[in-house]
Amino acid sequence: MNVTASPVFLWNVERGEAEAAELWDAITEQQLADWEAEWIPELFKALQRLRRAGVPRLAWPQSRHWDWRKKTAALTGMLAHPSFSIVCRGLTQGMMIVDNTTKRCRLTDQVGKNLVYVEYVENAPWNRKELFDPPRYRGIGTLLMRAAIEASRQEGFKGRIGLHSLPQADVFYAKTCGMTDLGVDPDPDYSPMHYFEMTQEQSEAFVAKGGKS
């Protein structure tokens, strides 16, 4: 597999400074090995802490059941489902899979137009503020969203993207990303998730501010 690694920067929370990282245009065996050997044990320990603290299960990470090996086996490798990952200090910090052919816009002023649909996106457990205080790095989610926007531009979709949000991420997509919330999708396969869309203008605004909240 030919992988292109582009230089990016994450915010090292403990040090209070930017740290060099890489955005890969793929999810490779290295990412899956990191998920199995590093992400899963850290997530398990974090869930144990939440349980002992009496945190209701509804407040636990809603992506905790995701199996990235199964997801990548089912979707990546197909031209319609490119994938991305962020690596820092040789360790995978976040992953994303998108769909660039099968979804269409729903917003009234662009209904039916092509967009890039974000199938799955996730931070490493130690970068999630609901699990670690403080988290190790910040900026993974915004970098991956910018990668989705760039993928949309390369396809000629002018930065239009869409996704269904896990409820815990609604504020991130609405406030940080500036996407339009179209409400709860009535499709039983997605309910009770909200569907969000980003227009060309919203993507340009997001990129212009550097993906900062």
List the helices and strands and how they pair.
Layout: E1 5-12, E2 17-24, H1 29-52, H2 68-75, E3 83-88, E4 91-99, E5 116-123, E6 137-138, H3 140-154, E7 161-165, H4 170-176, E8 180-184, E9 194-198, H5 200-208
Parallel strand pairs: 5-7
Antiparallel strand pairs: 1-2, 1-6, 2-3, 3-4, 4-5, 7-9, 8-9
List keywords for this structure.
alpha+beta, 9-stranded mixed beta sheet
Compute the CA-based radius of gyration: 17 Å
Q: Please count the helical segments.
A: 5
Measured by DSSP, the beta-strand proportion falls in 25-35%
> What summary fits the major beta sheet?
9 strands, mixed
Sum up the overall morphology in one term.
globular
Order of helices and strands: EEHHEEEEHEHEEH
Neighbour order of strands in the largest sheet: 6-1-2-3-4-5-7-9-8
**Average pLDDT, to the nearest integer?**
93
Count of beta strands: 9
Unreliable spans are none
How helix-rich are the residues, as a percent range? 25-40%
From the N-terminal CA to the C-terminal CA, the straight-line distance is: 35 Å
Derived structural class: alpha+beta
Structural commentary:
The protein has helices at residues 29-52, 68-75, 140-154, 170-176, 200-208, and strands at 5-12, 17-24, 83-88, 91-99, 116-123, 137-138, 161-165, 180-184, 194-198. It is α+β, with helices and mostly antiparallel strands. A nine-stranded mixed β-sheet has the order 6-1-2-3-4-5-7-9-8, sandwiched between helices. The longest helix has 24 residues, at 29-52. The mean pLDDT is 93.
